Write the structure tokens for this entry.
Amino acid sequence: RNWDYEPVSLASFTSDESLLKIDAKVNRLGRADFALTVAVDWNYDADENTMVKADAYHCTSGDESDYKLMPFSVPSQPFFEFLNGFYKDAFIKNVGHCSNLIQFEDKFEPPWPRGVYKMDKCVATGEGLPDVCPEGYYKIIFNATGQVNWGFILVARVTAKYI
């Protein structure tokens, strides 16, 4: 890939912390190194009514009013379809090495296990993501709906990678 990124902020939300609780933060590892740490306490059974979607926005200034929707969003889809698509093909390839999230080879077979899932100081590798990204700020809004509504908002600054 021809870009690097710096996470600017990570915020999470949930409609019922007794069913799903998220603690998320950006860690500063050094002068110019950052990582994400997330803990998800998952206490509900995702089913065919559990839907997910992710929208990606870009702007050059970082100003909230300048963000424009990007074409590489994840359309609204059932949770288990998401697991067999973007989750398997890109998300877990970026954070599997620094988390205890479920990993699988072929097709995910429900149910999604209840438990505490942790990403510990994760730095995404970019695998499965676009090779070329315009410089600027990206906002990713991930939403899950169903028995509990939850998600996160990640803002990252992307810069050109000089080799």
Notes: The two ends are 11 Å apart (CA to CA). The chain has a mean pLDDT of 92. Strands lie at 3-14, 20-28, 34-42, 51-59, 68-69, 74-78, 115-122, 136-145, 150-160. Residues 74 and 86 are 8 Å apart (CA to CA).
